[in-house]
Structures are given as C-alpha cells and as structure tokens.
Fold this sequence. Notes:
alpha/beta
Amino acid sequence: MSGAAAAVDELAGALGRARAVLFVTGAGVSLASGIDTFRGSDPGAVWKNEIMEKATLGHFRRDPADAWAWYLARFDRVAGAEPNPAHRALAALEDALEARGARSLLVTQNIDGLHHRAGSRALVEIHGKARKVRCSAPRCPEGAFGTLDFEASAFEAFRDAGSRAQLPRCPQCGEGLLRPHVLWFDEHYQSHPDYGFERVLAYLPTADLVLFVGTSFSVGITDWIVEDSRAARRACWSIDPSGDAPAGVRSIPGRAEDVIPVLAAP
Length: 266
C-alpha cells in the first residue's frame, strides 16, 4: 500500500471512530465543478487575475457599479456549476456519521452554494452566499440581519447600462443599494448573523476531528481553527493537491473529488 493510500485508510478509520467531526472546505473542493480557485495553481485563479481591492466594502462604497460588475461576472460562472463527487461525498459522510449517532458540521469558505445543493444540511457558509443579497444601508433590517434572494432579472438594466443609477435598491427601505451577501476583506465574521460564526464558535470545542478540504489556509477562519485545534490537541487532517498544511495538520496530497468519495464509500 502506498503512503497516500495508507494515510487515506487511516483517516477513514479516524472518521469511523469520531463522535463529532468538523469539515472545512475551500475553493479547491469546487474546482472540479468549473469554479476557479483564489490562490490555487489553476490558470483561472482569481488572485492571479483580479486585485484584492475589489472584494472590500470600501470599494463597494466608492464604486458600487464596478464592484457589482466584478461580482456579476463571478456569479455567472457559479450559476452554471453543478456539485461534483466531493460535494456529494461530503453530504454522504454527514449521513453516515448521523446514522451511527455522531455529529458533524461543514464550514465552507465558498459562496457557490454547491454543498447546499449536494444535500449537506449541517452547513455554515461562513463567507456568504452568491444566491443571496442584502441592503447596504446599515440601519435597514434587510442589511443588518436579513437577506434577500438574488434575482438575476433585477440586474438586467444595470447589465445594459453599467451605471450606478441602474443598480437595484432594497425593496424594504427603498434607499440602500443592494450588495452581494458576501464577507469582504475589510469586514469581520460577526458582521452578519447569517455567516454563522457563532455556530462555529460553539461547535469547535466539541469536535474531536477536523478535516480541511481544498483550502490554502490563507484566511482567518482556517487560522483560528488550526490554532484552537493545536491547543486542544485535536486531530486535524488536510486533503489538497499541494500537500501543504500548517504544523499539526496531517496532509494527504490529492484532489477532493478523488479522495473524499473513497472516504465516504460504505
């Protein structure tokens, strides 16, 4: 048995014994669905072709038309994507854990909604959802607490004209521009309750195993989970083609769509 195969077998055994598992996924889990990563080695990796400034609240306030043009192009690519074997296998693992009385929580950094569509129920979309929007006015309930469904038809006039005047406004207050329901780089995880940070905060101390899938460990949520797990001596594993992982995280080099279905096999 090769080293990688032996590691997969060992991880499968650990999952079979775990009582509470935390799955954490990044952009790599959706690459096989045709969605570019951010920091990966794929040719379309977003950070190779776009500037970080566009993904900020500050940029939206200065130039909402440019911000929406960037996000609509991204959302168009997401809209045509379908869940791949990794998404479906993670949903199957949730079912298998539940069937034997164990628990799980899947925290995804992705906004593409593919875990949701694949059937994952214990799910936190920590960076927001492409299928949702909200009001940009701070005092509007649809901004501070609520969300609205993203309706592509509401942006038809903007797509034609490309001007701020054609951007849709909040149907609740009638004043604030609608904004993407995404966590921007100059915002924090607790800036909106729908991001689910408090849910992760409550669950993590109960987990006895963490499995990272397709993440480069480059954002705050992964840093925090790794540090907390290291202090708690919690078992942590990573599946990613790069094979890179922080100290204390055992790495299995491989693509999510190849490895996760093996773990989920009966």
